[in-house]
Specification:
The protein is mostly helical and 92 residues long. Helix content is 35%, strand content 0%. It has 2 helices and no strands.
Length: 92
């Protein structure tokens, strides 16, 4: 008594028919990821709005120094003067 009929090859399993909605859902990212990204964007927008409403942190922190004047070239003595120049605190 043979177990299988060798004349007919085995048929592959039928693939389940997917609806269009199922295919679209499979192509989209998971809802939890989408929700997280939306929440992240909302928090960044709120943070930006609060920062714009608060204004600059320290509005007077920038110094306006002429290019050829003291402190040019990135040398900042923080009010101590230049060494050996006889200016306030320098060279003593």
């Amino acid at each position: 008594m043979p177990l299988t009929d060798s004349a007919t090859p085995p048929r592959p399993a039928d693939e389940p028919v997917q609806s269009r909605g199922a295919r679209v859902r499979r192509a989209l990212p998971p809802p939890a990821l989408t929700g997280f990204l939306v929440l992240l964007m909302v928090l960044m927008a709120v943070s930006y709005a609060v920062g714009r409403a608060a204004g600059p942190v320290a509005p007077g922190i920038h110094r306006n120094v002429p290019q050829g004047g003291p402190g040019a070239g990135g040398m900042d003595t923080h009010g101590m003067g230049l060494p050996g120049s006889g200016m306030a605190g320098g060279g003593r």
